[in-house]
Amino acid sequence: EDGYDLWLRYAPLEGEAREILAGLSLHPDVPDELVSDPTIAVAVAELERGIGSLIGESRTTPQTRFDIDFDCRNEDVGGIPGAYRIARLSGGDGLALTAPDSGGCLYGTFALLRELSLGQDPRVVDLVSAPAMPLRMLNHWDNPDGHVERGYAGRSIFDWWHLPERLDERMIDYARANASIGINGVVVNNVNARAFMLEPRYIAKYKRLADAWRPFGIRLYVSARFSAPQDIGGLETSDPLDPAVRAWWKAKADEFYRAVPDFGGFLVKANSEGQPGPQDYDRTHADGANMLAEAVGNRGTIIWRAFVYSETDETDRAKQAYAEFVPLDGQFADNVIIQVKNGPLDFQPREPFHPMFGAMPNTKLMLETQITKEYLGFASHLAFLAPMWSEVLEAETGRGGTVAEVVAPAGIAGVANTGSDRNWSGSDFDQANWYALGRLAWDPSLSSERIAREWAVQTFTRNPQAVETIAKMMLDSREAVVRYMTPLGLAHLMATGHHYGPAPWVCDLDRPEWNPCYYHRADADGIGFDRTASGSNALSQYADSVAARWADPQTIDREYLLWFHHVDWNARMHSGQTLWEELVREYDRGISEVDAMAEAWNGLAAAVDPQRHRAVAENLAIQQGEARWWRNASIAYWRSLNGLPMPEGAAPPPETLEEYKARSFPEAPGQ
Ligand code: BDP
């Protein structure tokens, strides 16, 4: 059990569930016109593989024939691509799998296998489901040389060196895993893109991958560097309004579509962190995006990122994206989607939802999340992210619905956490975040608890008590990380560069907003970033109803307190404690929660295979130590500013601030 099989383990059932399944001779009934459909072939193969594995050793019980009737051109379920219904076959022993397209039958097959894995009796399976949004994607930050930006699971899974001749079998298992959770789009390269990845020799590699993934319903997308017309096209400019530049992109797009007829389109990071973009020519994001949109036409989509981070006059980095994009609402072509990170800053353990959601009613916005845990302890800390994403998806924007409703016409992307590690994600529990991203993009109303349980059963064990324990660990885990890293609305206190470990004291980097001290604004009197009208007024970017709730430090949701307010260390909180006392209590609570996770896991030695049990236990031991490191280093630093004694009952940090500052670990994975 090295984790390679992910949630598609199909571990043999036991007891009654096995008896029932083994007693049925499941028979995929595929109509003639679908027999040669590659997607249906994938579905049938998966069904056979899954059921065989769920039954385990040879059949002993008498067999009853049980048909699975593939009815995959049926609009009865509604015309949404990928929708499916599974119901008892009328007038016969079996199930009818009904879908408007082959993709729906594939998703239905995976749904059926999930139910069976959960121990459901196939004779009573009754499901109807449709994806909530059209685009459910992974964005890989993989570089052509195999290094993954912010990747903590080994090298890239894409072998550009040997493609197109060699197709790693892993590319098929990857596609299966994605299809099983409804993911239908993959951007294969880093947003910090290299122009040569648009050259013909790369297009041949994409073709090989796209051909392999097509049966799994996955469309391939590529990150494009905006200056490619100059970098590889020999032009003097990349000005989006220049006719030669436009013609170059049109020809480039045609070249892609000749090789990959269902090519998804381009993803672009422009004018952010040194990437080129239309602003280099005094053009807008809309000018740049629309030029590419015209080049791909109705064949594909341009996904344009709102993560703009460059030198501006803004007094608050959190305001930049809204300021640049909202005035452009209505100017983007129909096949442009603006991809917006969950919060206005950068994938912190907690941020309020991004104020752009709801603020651009005439533009398609999609949600960008980060599966790889750049700011949440990499792959060594356990943090199940479904609660974080649901928090954002369920947030009321105050302008036409929740974030989930705002992004429903477009979709969700997750920055992938895959790598060449045998377990794909760098740790067993990080697989759950890949899983959760797909499940939530399919259905944002799924509860974190449901996702945790179904993942745990498929991945680890069906023992009900163990599942209970694992689900609880998962559900508490992200909040524990928030508590020991960035409690009460703090953010961006991580060490410079690799973003691992605490460094709230950093204050000497060239640009103000590179420094943790810019974000916490702690001094002798208090801590927190005043984003109200008396400060940066980032709050004014939210709808009035939301801003009103957050404007008052007395009424604001406690978890956003220091995000929006600078608060005196001695201010009284609702609990009756001072801010300082409450902050320290949060750190200590974070630590006890991690200790509780480790203890709970130790109790599962009999329920989980030894290989993965040990791997998880080792990570939890790291997390226990590092939660303390975060707490102690942070407290030592805050005390150096506020001079306050430790609250009663709280232990002082065992080392001096200088000792925490002096820690360095050059072996941490770089960017
Ligand atoms: C930040 C990462 C950086 C990415 C950037 C982005 O630190 O490596 O390039 O986001 O999203 O979180 O473009």
Automatic annotation (TrEMBL):
<dbReference type="GO" id="GO:0005576">
    <property type="term" value="C:extracellular region"/>
</dbReference>
<feature type="domain" description="Glycosyl hydrolase family 67 C-terminal">
    <location>
        <begin position="426"/>
        <end position="649"/>
    </location>
</feature>
<keyword id="KW-0378">Hydrolase</keyword>
<dbReference type="InterPro" id="IPR029018">
    <property type="entry name" value="Hex-like_dom2"/>
</dbReference>
<keyword id="KW-0732">Signal</keyword>
<dbReference type="Pfam" id="PF07477">
    <property type="entry name" value="Glyco_hydro_67C"/>
</dbReference>
<protein>
    <submittedName>
        <fullName>Alpha-glucuronidase</fullName>
    </submittedName>
</protein>
<dbReference type="GO" id="GO:0045493">
    <property type="term" value="P:xylan catabolic process"/>
</dbReference>
<feature type="region of interest" description="Disordered">
    <location>
        <begin position="648"/>
        <end position="671"/>
    </location>
</feature>
<dbReference type="GO" id="GO:0046559">
    <property type="term" value="F:alpha-glucuronidase activity"/>
</dbReference>
<dbReference type="GO" id="GO:0033939">
    <property type="term" value="F:xylan alpha-1,2-glucuronosidase activity"/>
</dbReference>
<feature type="domain" description="Glycosyl hydrolase family 67 catalytic">
    <location>
        <begin position="119"/>
        <end position="424"/>
    </location>
</feature>
<dbReference type="InterPro" id="IPR011100">
    <property type="entry name" value="Glyco_hydro_67_cat"/>
</dbReference>
<dbReference type="InterPro" id="IPR011099">
    <property type="entry name" value="Glyco_hydro_67_C"/>
</dbReference>
<dbReference type="InterPro" id="IPR017853">
    <property type="entry name" value="GH"/>
</dbReference>
<dbReference type="InterPro" id="IPR037054">
    <property type="entry name" value="A-glucoronidase_C_sf"/>
</dbReference>
<dbReference type="Pfam" id="PF07488">
    <property type="entry name" value="Glyco_hydro_67M"/>
</dbReference>
